[in-house]
Amino acid sequence: MNRLLQHAFTPNQATSIGLLAVAFWSSVVGLIRALSLHMGAVGGAAVMYSLSTLLLLAIFGLPNLRQFSRSYLFWASIFFVGCELCLSLSIGFADNARQAVEVGMVNYLWPTFTIIGAVWFNKQPAKWWIGIGFALSFIGIATVLGGDGGFSLPEIIGNVRTNPLSYIMALLDALFWAAYCTLTARTKAQGNAVGFFFLLVSCILWAKYFAGGYGSLHFDTGAILYAVAAAACMGLGYAVWNIGISCGNMTVLAGASYFIPIFSALISSFLLNAPLSVQFWQGAIMVCIGSGVCWLATQNFSFRRIE
């Protein structure tokens, strides 16, 4: 795999490979939820991140942490680890399949938050109508959380109250990832420490699992298949995205990434057998449009979901 990463790809080849990350990451929400039903939210996440860590280390090798400043490693670790913990546990602790998809959609506020972070903290030039994109994203999420009632404040409040922990963690996930990306761009960090961050996530999840008395893990056929699939989608997503952003067309890749919420909802609905309402799809489309408007407002801004 290291030889593959070092191969001289043409821009079109690299872009095509990078686009695979969209498919991989779009599958993560449904696979995490399915895995949690077999192994539990904490145990399933611990197994998945452990396998992803091994895969990432096999692909990228051991990270050279001396490339990074101590300050960067400290804050990047907090943001990255916080993001991944909130992502996996918010989905795993969802009350049902429909709620897992909704929680996953809240997570997809990260493109909007990332662009806002680039403008606010990194002084990225932007048009005034970036505010329209920001508003569209939040209206879209509100429509999703309103269930069949659509954009209805009482429905939104009632829905969130059924499981506030999952929804709060999903929002924190988006904020943590935006903070990590903003920090990495601001410090112009070079190298790849994703394997190290995944190792930290795995250790914390195993510590929580053994300290919390979650019972024994059941490695039946379904659990193993979902664990391998989820870990592969997570790890390979980073690998192919790295190829795409290194040698491919970043404009195409960034544009495609804003459709991940739609693809994720489609795949999750199929995997989890969770029918989604017209109102949900309307909200999901608004989230995508809002992220796209924010991106266009920054002109030449391009987002990379990897160090």
Automatic annotation (TrEMBL):
<feature type="transmembrane region" description="Helical">
    <location>
        <begin position="223"/>
        <end position="241"/>
    </location>
</feature>
<feature type="transmembrane region" description="Helical">
    <location>
        <begin position="128"/>
        <end position="145"/>
    </location>
</feature>
<protein>
    <submittedName>
        <fullName>Aromatic amino acid DMT transporter YddG</fullName>
    </submittedName>
</protein>
<feature type="transmembrane region" description="Helical">
    <location>
        <begin position="72"/>
        <end position="93"/>
    </location>
</feature>
<feature type="domain" description="EamA">
    <location>
        <begin position="166"/>
        <end position="291"/>
    </location>
</feature>
<feature type="transmembrane region" description="Helical">
    <location>
        <begin position="165"/>
        <end position="185"/>
    </location>
</feature>
<feature type="transmembrane region" description="Helical">
    <location>
        <begin position="253"/>
        <end position="272"/>
    </location>
</feature>
<feature type="transmembrane region" description="Helical">
    <location>
        <begin position="12"/>
        <end position="35"/>
    </location>
</feature>
<keyword id="KW-0472">Membrane</keyword>
<feature type="transmembrane region" description="Helical">
    <location>
        <begin position="105"/>
        <end position="121"/>
    </location>
</feature>
<keyword id="KW-1133">Transmembrane helix</keyword>
<keyword id="KW-0812">Transmembrane</keyword>
<feature type="transmembrane region" description="Helical">
    <location>
        <begin position="278"/>
        <end position="298"/>
    </location>
</feature>
<feature type="transmembrane region" description="Helical">
    <location>
        <begin position="41"/>
        <end position="60"/>
    </location>
</feature>
<dbReference type="InterPro" id="IPR037185">
    <property type="entry name" value="EmrE-like"/>
</dbReference>
<dbReference type="InterPro" id="IPR000620">
    <property type="entry name" value="EamA_dom"/>
</dbReference>
<feature type="transmembrane region" description="Helical">
    <location>
        <begin position="192"/>
        <end position="211"/>
    </location>
</feature>
<dbReference type="Pfam" id="PF00892">
    <property type="entry name" value="EamA"/>
</dbReference>
